[in-house]
Predict the structure.
Amino acid sequence: MHLSRIPILAAALTTALVLGACSSGTNAGSGGDDKTLTLASVDQGSIEDVVKAFETANPGVKVRYTTSGADQYQQQIRTQLASGTAPDVMTVWPGNGNPGATFVLAKPGYLMDLSDQPWAARLPAGLKGVTQYDGKTYNAVFGLNGIGAVYNQQALDKAGLQAPTTWTELLTFCRAAAGKGTPAFALGIQDNWVNQLALYALVATLVYGPDKDFDTKMQSGSATFAQSPWAAAMAKYQEMDKTGCFQKNPLGTSYEASQDLAATGKTLGIIQGNWVVALLKGKNPAGTFTLRALPATDTPATFMMPAAAGAGYGVNAKTKNKELALKFISYIMSPEGMKVFNTKQGSLPSIPDNGSGVDPAFTELTTYLKDNKTVPFMDQLWPNAKVQQTMLSGLQEIFSGQSTPDKVLAAMDADYKAGA
């Protein structure tokens, strides 16, 4: 996706992929009761407050919802849609990058056209490319997200260390942190979607810093993953691991467990999206957490940050509760609903000037947005969902010693060339 196609990122921001980790609620199949809405979400930790606020604003209405991790959710949602057992409203990712993404679900007719909703016309032009399919809007994206290194300030102070500002400083920082018994970053790649985040943070600077037209070149066939700085980003990710930047056994650490490590100061931070800050504060209300760009070179002026539209919500095209489903979508896209969501997630609103505040933890990210130094999450406009899945499984195999970056990048190229 070409950088110029998301100009909104220079003005606002919030959540990848807003991703949950735990299951709750009851089975959320669509039931046809005009006072009961069924909902499936990956926004564990924030959807709960949104549901409560919606129910309060609509007396007599009940929302039956489930939350689950992204991996589990993406495996289930298409099966549910195909079998007619999907809920009324569901998490939908922007673009085309995974099995639960807008293009993937809208193309076979699983999602309701939301183009006539008032908020759809207010979506900035940069978001329309990833919330629409064939010119119609299917995804109510309420926020934008950024990826970087989130530091626990109290843990840094205790270790007597400062957040690194260059690649050389980053490796020195990792060695020093490991030497003090508090690894630099928690990494929970037992949940394989987590593996992409550190890589994307490196790719933003190494690939898009020198070549903002990289996506256009990929689309035209004049560039490949294997013959580009993606290879250098993979190598630096491995170097971080070998240098001791992460705790022991990342493959055996879940996303939830990695949050615990960073929140309690057992690591000095975590490489994640801005959404994790709210989760860390939930585990450590007295903590101070700050999101910063992950250094990928020794020239800070070249740094870029991944920032893009986060997961939103779509409506089941076969819902028997159309009116109530649209009422819920309208609520989360209203100033009131968006503020609840964005405040709880620590994210930025997708529609500017809606009254939502910005957490000071994201000052650097906001600056990068204003300075046009952000790039979209790399997968959002890849031609199919297979590329990302190949990357995620390949990264796990690299960490377990079963594959190499060259093999993974070659497989990604093959999937990319296969098209839609």
In short: The longest strand covers residues 143-152. The chain has 17 helices and 14 strands.
